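Saturday, quiet lab. Running sequence design on the structure tokens for the scaffold JK sent over.
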């Protein structure tokens, strides 16, 4: 396929590398052009404008948030895009913006697919992402070779693009809640002189197996918050988006409000660029415990 790609952060760069490995032709655009050089060396074509990327058989965008998506994918770009183009937006954005983008694309004869992913940069590099996709069946079929190159499983969950985004936000809310409870559990254990590492051995070998409790639990136990695989400020963004989606349908999410406040506290103490696991530091600080970290 001839694929355009917009957004070359840690996730986007890894995804482009896998598209190239799968034999696709990829044209890349990024606001900071220097990020594209390594991909050019791997075979990507670096283009000077968004319009040059927004063409071909399909275009993928992987940007940080609503503001970045709205800046890059504006009305002018859509107006001049080739009719029938499939745009696959793999960013985690608000439900409201996803619905708006769906309408704006349809009005201009373009196909819009929302395909946010579950997985951190290491999963992206290994082409092991879980892809949550929603949109018209025809557009999903056309995008499937892209998904096959990037992930180990694609879940098609509906015809409305925003349905994929609300599922991703629900998943990230659950992740944030798990990390919050791990941090609070760590503070409780520390107060009684019990090792967090011993605790993790017990619970991950029994009722809570899997990478979330084992991985984030280990980071909290070791007070290791860098390098950040998922930054606290991005976690806050996603929890706020989940709360906004809940507001639209008058759904209370009291735990999400707690996690939001914990992430705000982390950022207020200068830890916004550190890993999500810094919620363990927040819990320790609230408990009056020494919260030294690496």
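Result came back. Writing it out in full:
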């Amino acid at each position: 396929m001839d694929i355009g790609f917009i957004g070359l952060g840690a996730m986007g760069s890894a995804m482009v590398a896998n598209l190239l490995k799968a034999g696709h032709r990829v044209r890349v655009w990024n606001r900071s052009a220097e990020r594209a050089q390594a991909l050019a060396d791997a075979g990507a074509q670096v283009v000077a404008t968004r319009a040059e990327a927004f063409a071909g058989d399909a275009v993928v965008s992987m940007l940080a948030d609503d503001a970045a998506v709205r800046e890059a994918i504006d009305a002018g770009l859509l107006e001049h895009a080739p009719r029938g183009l499939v745009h696959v937006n793999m960013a985690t954005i608000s439900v409201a913006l996803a619905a708006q983008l769906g309408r704006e694309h349809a009005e201009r004869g373009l196909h819009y697919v929302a395909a946010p992913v579950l997985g951190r940069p290491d999963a992206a590099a290994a082409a092991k992402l879980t892809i949550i996709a929603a949109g018209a069946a025809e557009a999903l079929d056309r995008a499937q070779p892209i998904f096959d190159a990037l992930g180990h499983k694609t879940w098609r969950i509906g015809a409305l693009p925003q349905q994929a985004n609300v599922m991703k936000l629900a998943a990230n809310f659950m992740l944030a809640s798990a990390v919050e409870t791990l941090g609070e559990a760590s503070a409780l254990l520390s107060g009684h002189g019990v090792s967090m590492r011993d605790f993790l051995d017990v619970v991950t070998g029994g009722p809570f197996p899997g990478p979330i409790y084992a991985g984030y639990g280990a980071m909290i136990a070791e007070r290791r918050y860098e390098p950040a695989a998922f930054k606290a400020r991005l976690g806050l963004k996603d929890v706020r988006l989940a709360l906004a989606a809940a507001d639209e349908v008058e759904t209370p999410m009291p735990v999400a409000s707690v996690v939001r406040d914990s992430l705000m506290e982390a950022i207020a103490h200068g830890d916004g660029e550190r890993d999500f696991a810094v919620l363990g530091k927040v819990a320790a600080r609230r408990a009056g415990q020494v919260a030294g970290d690496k």
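Notes for JK: The mean pLDDT is 96. The beta strands are 2-6, 25-29, 45-46, 58-61, 86-89, 111-114, 117-118, 129-133, 151-156. Ask whether to fix the surface positions before the next round.
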